[in-house]
């Protein structure tokens, strides 16, 4: 009888316990299938995932909800979207107890731990070799290929924002002139990565802005590198993604546990074949990652420059693309 009562109490606590609300980009919807049951059973809380077209839209929602936050966690912040979120003071500073598992200090997305790194990768231009007469090797080559490239909107997409920053890192004060030259090469601009990839797979264009791990993706799913990743000669851009606790009056203990869970072997091992990025801890990589493209000649934009200039850059980009 005591055992039955104990089981009932445990089930009641799970069923009627707290709910942890997690805001994620649509490209990370795999988390719902891959970790929801495990996390809920380990910590006795319900995980509720709310999906958005991109991390930029998540930050916009968090700004609107600043006085009365609905989310507990945000996942998928890049350096650019993190800078915007920190500026709004909507994140809670927290250094997880297992942060020493991060394999390289250079992968720490924020030294003050308003966000914790959980994966990283490099941006690349992926292409289908059978759809190009000649494979470009530089941005200068790409701008000559009319309506050949799918890009993500930097106002709504983390990938899109980082592509904009990539061009700023290379061309500096002349980035707008580069985009003027790039415009004829752009077939379409999508809200996020998922929409871009769907169009790319539908053969609407031979190239898209994506990630250096796409060769690994192609090998894993198609048994060969039908898609290849190009790092232009001008340099490659490294993207780091982080997760953060929302700054609110009552922060749930499970929010801290969730951030720590993201650095666990269980979660890190799921990143390569679901997120198609590199894990930040020393878990073993699957064989397909032998075909991930190495980032050579890396370029970046400092967090300070992003914080001070991103909103201006986005407005300038918007005006430029309207012309």
Shape by Cα distribution: globular
Main pleated sheet: 12 strands, mixed
Task: Output the radius of gyration.
Answer: 21 Å
Q: In percent terms, what proportion of residues is strand?
A: 15-25%
Organism: Hypnocyclicus thermotrophus
Protein name: Thiamine transport system substrate-binding protein
Keywords: Signal
GO molecular function: thiamine binding
Sum up the structure in keywords.
single chain; 323 residues; alpha/beta; twelve-stranded mixed sheet; 14 helices; 12 strands; thiamine binding; ThiB-like
Write up this protein.
By secondary structure, this protein is α/β, with parallel strands linked by helices. 39% of the residues lie in helices and 20% in strands. It is globular. GO terms for molecular function: thiamine binding. Keywords: Signal.
Topology:
Elements: H1 2-15, E1 19-25, H2 30-34, H3 36-43, E2 46-52, H4 55-64, E3 73-77, H5 79-87, E4 91-92, E5 116-127, H6 139-142, E6 149-152, H7 158-171, H8 175-182, E7 186-190, H9 193-201, E8 207-211, H10 214-222, E9 228-230, E10 236-246, H11 253-261, H12 265-268, H13 271-274, E11 278-279, E12 298-299, H14 303-322
Parallel strand pairs: 1-2, 1-3, 6-7, 6-8, 10-12
Antiparallel strand pairs: 3-10, 4-10, 5-8, 5-9, 5-10, 5-11
Helix pairs in contact: 4-5, 5-14, 7-8
